[in-house]
Amino acid sequence: MSMVKTPEEIALMREAGRVVANTLSAVRSHAGVGVSLKELDEVAAAFMEAAGAKPAFLNYRPRWASTPFSGVICTSVNDAVVHGIPDGYVLQDGDLLSVDCGAFVEGWCGDAAVSFIVGTSDPVDQELIDATDAALARGIDAARIGNKMGDLAYAIGGEAKRSGYGILADHGGHGIGRTMHAEPSVPNMGRPGRGVKLVDGLVIAIEPMLILGGSDDYYHDDDQWTLRSANGRRAAHSEHTVAITADGPLVLTLP
């Protein structure tokens, strides 16, 4: 499988993952009431430059996109689920902010996301974030040799659905390596025992995206990038890049 990475390649991806993790930490530390999304993007850009990393998102243009992405990070606020463009919006008390970050180091990519509350936390929003983080943890735990992608997808989405959350339709995780998005697809809903077999050396980005209210539907903003929940409810996004190894799942996007 061309998707499989050697231990040496995984070690290089770990360095990219470390930059991603530390960039997210810097952005989270800077976020606060009165801070603009553009300011957070500038923090991320400066941190990556100092680390000698190349932003994975800046000027990224997949086939479906009408314009390249204009930010170093994705900043999605409240009902924006993913792919929010960092603009002049100023964060308000109680906003739910999801930050997605990707970086290349020596040609290898890391990708991760985190969600948190700015200022005063609403318990319902915090429960949503906790549920999204828990879904990611279940997915990581299922990323083991011999399991199938359906086992991992069911681990992510089964409990989340039973708890009443929506799961963003048509979107999920992905393979990753020399490019940010590669095969295989990593769905957030699936049936156990189905799909690609997970093998030693496979590296994937696992990323649940949960929505309050139970609806999976979304629509595109006028910018053609930002995806918003169709029901107008808040959403959260959590992601790690994970290598499947003989010793179990290895999270690459940690500090």
UniProtKB/TrEMBL annotation:
Q: Where does a divalent metal cation 1 bind?
A: D100, D111, E239
Entry keyword annotation includes Metal-binding: yes
Binding of a divalent metal cation 2, residues: D111, H174, E207, E239
Give the Enzyme Commission number: 3.4.11.18
Q: What GO MF terms are annotated? A: initiator methionyl aminopeptidase activity; metal ion binding; metalloaminopeptidase activity
Required co-factor(s) are: Co(2+); Zn(2+); Mn(2+); Fe(2+)
What family does the Swiss-Prot or TrEMBL record give for this protein? Belongs to the peptidase M24A family. Methionine aminopeptidase type 1 subfamily.
Which HAMAP family does this one have?
A: MetAP_1
The molecule here is called Methionine aminopeptidase
Record gene name: map
